[in-house]
Give the backbone structure.
Amino acid sequence: MANTKTSNLNALSSIDAGDLIPVVDTSASETKYITRANLAIDLAIPPADDTHDHGSAALNWRHYFMSGNFTVDSASWIGLGAAEGRIAFVDDTPDIIRFRDCIARFGANSGTYMINVTPSSAIAGLQIAMATINERALSVSNADASHTVALVKFIQNETNSATAYGLHVDSENAAGPAVMIEAANTSIEMAQGVQDMPFFNFTATADGDTTSAISTLTTSGATTHHVQVDINGVKAWIAVSTNVPS
């Protein structure tokens, strides 16, 4: 078999598990064989680390079908190119996943912001569950001191439901305030839109008491409530009543 010319051999369109593949062993000057399983191992493991490419920019492999994991070295990326949209993985504490030179779209293929969440079905767009971690759930900052746009903007276009809030803060079990605003200038500024709706709508619960932010006063009727405010650490109350003032 060592002297057989390749022109005398029949070509195979595929390699079956039981086929033997002849290989010339130049060190022994003889022809040997390897199995399909051994060939797969030799092709899967390169002879040198970080040296050989799989395909090229001009000649690409098409699809990869895998049932295991895809592991890359730290700071390696998967994407369109070194200066194009790509995902990089960095070995750190904790590990970091970087989305570079791109915008991210979750759900429908729309949006021009850095992160766009547009649900394509009846599911919540974004949920942050902190469990028992003592850190901020969301931190938004802007280092540009000259910016002229809102740092955070909520747009609610639903007009058919009274509970379709633009922002709903639920801190029923929290010991601290639901919302705290610190500002060097005007803390809250409100501009009336096209709908003739109130800026604030307070709703008191039936079991409210004098320590609640809005509750029934113990010395007044059932239709009188108050708003509790804090002035330099001293609690004060603003009376609110459904009675027509005289």
